[in-house]
């Protein structure tokens, strides 16, 4: 039924939204996920399908694609309704206390509670700004679906954050040579990742920015990079560019739903409650003192948000779900 009422609707089908859906099943809540993208997985599915993720406890290394596949399979344990290609643009609390969610295409959803797990919202990558960049569209990459296509090639990664360093390290054993271009000096990444980078074969060019792309017949052969300290320019031969210059994020109309916001997120308390009763937030959507923005932290916040939603609906309910090893669904 299109107008049936759900116990909880999770806005966002990335890793945190998917795990939250699994946990809400442990709490016997009728659950729906709504995601703006064509498939669940969030930024991990879009940007990092072949990147190795290493900061989740108990999983030494896993590709983004495999992580998303595992989380989706886990989320489907209790058969939540999953709706893709819909961006929620309006939320209204009706007189009976039910939330009405309206999508960009006019679809209407009803839910007793809402958990926002949209990450930083929708996103648009910051494009490379350099002379003749428009002449080599096939050589410029903002995400990678098949890393093997770069085996034994010379590649350049541009950026100084975790994503750029992760891509440089991921490509290093595949590519013939990896260059990392960074306009600054102090990398904005985990200390251990920076240490490993400096001990690898990756050739690092700090204080440099890509100024021009050079080639013939739409085939990139080299780039010009300019030192922002000496203003001197040098060229680097390359066949492919990986651009990690950040993304423009947009909370869209969520910014108008009455939440308190700060630090690129929705302010929550230690129970993941927003300032709107019945609406909770977790993952990169949420912000609070000493916030840690890694997947593992979001996987902790999701269950807190779900437990709070459960208590909102049933004040006498248990504070948390029975651990999965004792849950009736998994006892044969």
Cα radius of gyration in angstroms: 22 Å
Largest β-sheet summary: 7 strands, mixed
At CATH's second level, what is the architecture of the largest domain? 3-Layer(bba) Sandwich
- What's the average pLDDT? 90
Q: Structural class of the helices, strands and pairings?
A: alpha/beta
Order of secondary-structure elements: EHEHEEHEEEEEEEHEHEEEEEEEEEEH
The gross shape turns out to be elongated
Give the distance, in angstroms, between the N- and C-terminal Cα atoms. Answer: 32 Å
User: Strand-residue fraction?
Assistant: 25-35%
The number of distinct structural domains comes to 2
Q: What is the β-strand count?
A: 22
User: What fold name stands as the CATH topology of the largest domain?
Assistant: FAD/NAD(P)-binding domain
Low-confidence parts, pLDDT < 50 over ≥5 residues?
none
Name the CATH superfamily assignment of the largest domain: FAD/NAD(P)-binding domain
Please, how many helices?
6
Give the helix proportion (percent range).
Answer: 10-25%
Q: Which CATH top level class of the largest domain fits?
A: Alpha Beta
